Amino acid sequence: MTLCANRPEGFGPFSHRYARILTSCFLDTVLVPLCTWLYLFALTIILALARRRRGPTTTSIFGRVGKNTPEDTSNDPPNPRTTRKLHLTSTILYYLLILAQTLMCILEIVRLSLAHLGIGLLPFTFVTLLVAATLRFTSGLEGRLVGWKWATVGVWAALAVVNGVKIAEEVKEGTGTRKGSKYPEADEITDVSVMIGVYVVLGILEIVLPKT
Q1: What is the per-residue pLDDT for 196?
Q2: Which residue of 14, 67, 97, 114 has the smallest Cβ count within 10 Å?
């Protein structure tokens, strides 16, 4: 299969060389891009539901809630300057991690290509990174997409899990596999492990950061 050429375990989904593991080809061409497809599908549903909402009613409800929330009458409000600094630091870290993950994805794709192993449909991950960064920057396109934050948390979690499965598959194959090639198995395990860590931190920041 041209999407993942020269991968000895075949397309799969289950490897014919190693028992009870998914093939790297199946992961790279189906499960990894599936995270993006489900993310876009969820956002499409959220957008469709948002169009059915009545703007004036929603605005008036949010207006009343903003006026009657306990935080407005609190005797011990948080320090605005400290809150602003924490928010700015977390936001900068978020976008730096998006950039770092983009570079890690490029690295993985380039090295797979140089090793003539095929890149599957891994470039779909760039769509997720771009859409997530856009939604964060625009606060869900200025509040039109209610629930976008949790859809993004979901895709970070899904990508972390799928890449975790990829690590399990690569470990079972052995770190000495493809030794001497332009992309040894040990190097790919290191790269994917870093990507999992970044996805986890992105998910945490997505939860912690406010929508606006």
Answers
A1: 97
A2: 67
Dist. CA 90–CA 92, nearest whole Å: 6
DSSP-assigned letters across all residues of 133-186: HHHHHTHHHHHTSTTHHHHHHHHHHHHHHHHHHHHHHHHHH-TTTTTTSSS-HH
Backbone CA torsion sign across 98, 104, 105, 107: positive
Q: Are 98 and 209 in contact (CB under 8 A)?
A: no
| pLDDT score recorded for residue 81 | 73
Task: Enumerate residue ranges in the chain where pLDDT < 50.
Answer: 1, 56-74
pLDDT value of residue 86: 84
Decide if 162 contacts 31 (C-beta within 8 A). Answer: yes
Tell me: the pLDDT tens digits for 103-142?
A: 999 999 999 999 888 899 999 999 999 999 999 999 887 7
Q: Which backbone phi and psi does 65 adopt, to 5 degrees?
A: -65, -40
Task: Find residue 22's DSSP bridge partners.
Answer: 14
CA distances for 206 relative to 71, 84, 123, angstroms: 22, 17, 22
